[in-house]
Design goal:
Largest sheet: 4 strands, antiparallel
Oligomer: single chain
Strand order of the largest sheet: 1-4-3-2
Number of strands: 4
Number of helices: 14
Helix content: 55-70%
Strand content: 5-15%
């Protein structure tokens, strides 16, 4: 039985009782579809004000979760605290399973001294953030870790929008592993097969053959899918203009981005964002 709706209800009940916000960030888009707004974004007055302060602040907020903190959660695989560019702290509970990479973010919480560099209007809101003691932090960690165990995350929804081919990365050739590291680290930059060939020590023809044999699709198609997989998450998790999403995910031409998005997802980026906005029921499609 899919227990994901029960997890959502539990998180909402926890927030109502404790007054603390809980946000889920994940690369597994199917997990995001049923989520109400307060579990997708930080909706407290401080975070809203920070995002509205400037487009740069909004972008930094998105990057902090979508890249920095989420990536660190996948690497660490154990709970930790993180402080964002606006100076507030969150407790991060990694969700690392066979099918998913994600994390619960509990907060934001007040960090001593971190808000001194904020503009005055933001500083007043910053000082209204709740404080949590070390004992409370330990209890929160235990609670969310137990919730994950009870929920059996391995059985949660599989993504209908997953574009990257499944692969047993533990058995992939060392040079292909290095290729993956380069692609997933540098996909925003203009990447060419020839440059990667030189870095891993293979001829172009041999590289392209090995890549297609390992992953079942060609190098260029994999790179396109990787960028689109990132882009749909930015559209889902942020309110950035679509042109900014395209540029952030490595697409130099927005029309090309829209055409590829429609080819793989059967709708344009704008239609996808509108569908997300118009979704009325928090459990529609679950």
């Amino acid at each position: 039985m899919n227990r994901y709706p029960k997890v959502i209800q539990t998180l909402q009940a926890f927030s109502r009782f404790s007054g603390l916000h809980v946000v889920l960030k994940t690369a597994e888009r199917a997990w995001l579809a049923p989520l109400p707004e307060e579990l997708r974004y930080h909706c407290c007055a401080f975070c809203r004000a920070v995002k509205q302060h400037s487009e740069r602040m909004n972008l930094l907020c998105s990057r902090h979760h979508a890249e920095t903190a989420l990536g660190e959660a996948v690497r660490r695989r154990v709970p930790f605290e993180t402080t964002c560019h606006a100076g507030v702290t969150e407790l991060v509970i990694p969700i690392v399973t066979t099918r998913c990479r994600g994390a619960f973010f509990v907060g934001p919480l007040l960090s001593s001294g971190e808000g001194s560099k904020l503009p005055e209007d933001l500083r007043k809101l910053y000082l209204s953030m709740p404080k949590v003691s070390r004992v409370q932090t330990a209890a929160l960690t235990e609670f969310f870790s137990s919730l994950l165990n009870i929920a059996e995350p391995e059985g949660w929804q599989n993504s209908p929008r997953e574009l990257l081919p499944p692969a047993d990365y533990g058995r992939i050739d060392e040079r292909m592993q290095k290729t993956m590291q380069i692609l997933h680290r540098e996909f925003r930059k203009p990447l060419r097969a020839g440059a990667i060939c030189r870095e891993i020590g293979l001829s172009r023809s041999r590289f392209l053959h090995c890549f297609a044999k390992t992953f079942g699709i060609g190098f260029c198609e994999y790179l396109q899918r990787l960028r689109l997989s990132e882009a749909i998450q930015w559209i889902e998790l942020t309110d950035l203009p679509l042109s900014a999403v395209a540029a952030e995910c490595g697409f130099r031409d927005q029309s090309r981005f829209s055409a590829l998005f429609k080819r793989y997802y059967r709708m344009t980026p704008g239609e996808f964002r509108k569908q997300r906005t118009d979704r009325s029921s928090p459990f529609s499609g679950s």
